[in-house]
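A protein record in our archive is deliberately plain, so that people and models can read it alike. The tokens are whole numbers drawn from a learned vocabulary of local backbone shapes. For reference, a complete record is included directly beneath this paragraph.
>
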Amino acid sequence: MSKSAIQTLTTPQERALEASRQVALVVGASLVVALCARITIPLMPLTPVPLTVQNLGVLLVGLLLGSRRGFAALALYLIEGAVGLPVFNPTGPGGIAQLLGPTGGFLMVYPFVAFLTGYIFERGTKTFLRAATAGLLAEIVLFAGGLAWLYAFTHSLAKAAYLGLYWFLAAEIIKIMVAAAIATRVRRSAVKQ
């Protein structure tokens, strides 16, 4: 709901109810990403970065909640993980150690990935092509952050790409397409109601 629509709510109870709804959406979205993180395929000894459905969740949150709420949901997700809640993929150490480990670069850019996905999708016609484009551009940001972090560990761009890119390309394309399909279907259903 846009800010102007929230301002048109007349009573304090209506405004409080809408604020509670928005908070529930953000908290719920962070939990969806946490559930997606549980679906993990470890790729050890090839790479310390596991194949996970978590990125699909991040894309969906951005596409469905928009830029601001998507950013908030993923910032909350990182806070939940940093304080030790079991929201990150189960193959890692959890908590701050996971944020500082090999997957930390991917994790730390999640709020920006959700923001960019939502920003692109909420501007213009909500088509599959726009959603897929938003997902693709956001994935570029995701992998730029993840590979930069791995480069800091390995001091080799080739090694960083080996550990954090090549194993994941096909799966990421599928995730982008699935997220785009779900988002456009949900948006169309919402418009029809």
